[in-house]
Amino acid sequence: MRKWGGTTLLATCDADLLGKVLREGKIIFEIREEFYKGLKVNVEEALDLVEQCTIVNMVGHRIVKKAVEKGLIHPEAVLKISGIPHAQIIKM
After folding, report:
1. CA-based torsion, 91, 4, 65, 43: positive or negative
2. What global pTM score does this model have?
């Protein structure tokens, strides 16, 4: 989690994806440690943190699936890059 003024960003990914690069066509999506690495928590704890954030960036089968199941993300809002789900939440 990172805070800037009134904005709180949560970047979360499935642990096994940390440091990987996803490629699909012209898309190159880097799951950089500088952005995603931080406190290691389980999926439920990560989703609890969503409540405190204004922007959420998530990538991975486990985290995105659970966010959809909890109604935090609409299934049609999930993008797949090389078969890996990616979703964002922006609260206004």
Report:
1. negative
2. 0.89
